[in-house]
Design a protein that fits this description.
heterodimer, A: Immunoglobulin-like, five-stranded antiparallel β-sheet, 59% strand, B: 116 residues, Immunoglobulin-like, seven-stranded mixed β-sheet, four-stranded antiparallel β-sheet, 11 strands
Chain lengths: 115, 116
Amino acid sequence: QQQVKQSPQSLIVQKGGISIINCAYENTAFDYFPWYQQFPGKGPALLIAIRPDVSEKKEGRFTISFNKSAKQFSLHIMDSQPGDSATYFCAAKNYSGAGSYQLTFGKGTKLSVIP
Amino acid sequence: GAGVSQSPRYKVAKRGQDVALRCDPISGHVSLFWYQQALGQGPEFLTYFQNEAQLDKSGLPSDRFFAERPEGSVSTLKIQRTQQEDSAVYLCASSLEQGWGLAPLHFGNGTRLTVT
């Protein structure tokens, strides 16, 4: 079944703290795992992505940790800032046949970083 | 243009009306996707185009939904006889690569459709 489960639904973190968002998947055919950031009234924007042959990827304050055997991956935001307040979506990509591919999104985590 | 452009930004339709939502992808982008995002939810796949070919329409919720991309650039999502459950933000995304490519998806800001 095409499904990506994301938690928590909402998260409040103090400025300077670490924000952690978790996702789990079932379909082992997924081969690419991006995270998107969405501000109100805007479309999702790619934040960082990882392939399943890598266990960790870091870009600035953002890190993805990937556990292939557990079929789980997570986003860590270090030194969280009020400007990071947004909704974050994990996603997973797979080939769906006939030259097509799909991104399946989690339900999102609303992050609020308080001063 | 610099990004994916969608119009209109907001659309209010009375139940039963037909609507057409437009997407201008980034120039030269081969792949184009339509997603539906209900309030407080993640985007859900509707359909995928590779140039002008609609390769996957498995996510379209009913035969009232129709999408086209006749010249491989601009795309239109049409919803006939709109229902209240069609109320959502409709997102368009484009990507430089096709098929297995890992090029990122660039999303537009969406069209918010409200059916009254």
